[in-house]
Design brief:
Mean pLDDT of chain A: 96
Largest sheet of chain A: none
Oligomer: homodimer
Structural class of chain A: mainly alpha
Distance between the termini of chain A: 13 Å
Number of helices of chain A: 5
CATH superfamily of chain A: lambda repressor-like DNA-binding domains
Number of domains of chain A: 1
Strand content of chain A: under 5%
CATH architecture of chain A: Orthogonal Bundle
Number of strands of chain A: 0
CATH class of chain A: Mainly Alpha
Shape of chain A: globular
CATH topology of chain A: 434 Repressor (Amino-terminal Domain)
Largest interface: A-B, 26 and 26 residues
Order of helices and strands of chain A: HHHHH
């Protein structure tokens, strides 16, 4: 898989996290706290700048109260 | 989120990869090659022993010809 495609997926996941996080009424800082992740790390995630791992993806899905499948819904 | 819960998710994802990989008729070695990942790393993934990142998850979904959402289908 090309790097450009992988970056696109990171970006799409970050956008999805941002949309769902805002829909739950969390600020980025509050949400990072809920996920037990650092605030600046959460910013990086939402901008698609990190190769986030399954453990941290699971913490985010848990805080958003969605399944992993729902979190990835619509991502190609 | 508790470590036990995160481990359970890693295990469930590994199981899911194994089932879908076998359904496609790939040996673990062939499949690792398709994903551009190391054979021993793929074994670790299927046993839930790695905190796999989104880039590698995307490579696996791509080789399985499923969406990310489908890959996580049924995982809690």
């Amino acid at each position: 898989m090309e790097v450009a495609k992988l970056k696109k997926i990171r970006k799409a996941l970050g956008e999805r996290v941002r949309v769902l996080r805002k829909a739950k009424g969390f600020s980025q800082e509050e949400f990072a706290y809920e996920c037990d992740l650092h605030r600046t790390y959460m910013g990086d995630i939402e901008r698609g700048e990190r190769n986030i791992s399954i453990d941290n993806i699971a913490k985010i899905a848990n805080a958003l109260e969605v399944t992993l499948s729902e979190l990835f819904d619509g991502l190609k």
